Amino acid sequence: MARHVRAGDMVIVTAGSEKGKTGEVSSVNPKAETVIVKGVNLRTKHIRPTQRSPQGAVVQVEAPIHISNVSPVVDGKPTRVRFEQRSDGSKVRVAVRSGQPIATIARKRKGDKSKTETI
Question: Between the N and C ends of the chain, which has fewer C-beta atoms within 10 Å?
Fold first, then answer.
């Protein structure tokens, strides 16, 4: 199923206690319909002392946000997303505010075995 937000997109939080904050989507969980946004919705996690770290720790961790509570940012403003079908049959995400396609960052997938070339 197509999602209006993908990993690497800049988004703004539109609802909840973090409303108005912007950040980059680091991951999307399609099953739970949540996203993790860098630097937004931080929670404090206490790490138990172990042999590796005898002191333990208190760290800030980004918590998931429901996908309906974020919108992609285009030209500094939130926008809705429409899907259009190209003549070659592929789907493309289009920003409703500007009518322009939303740029998608090419990300390497886990099982991808393509080699990178060095120049």
Answer: C
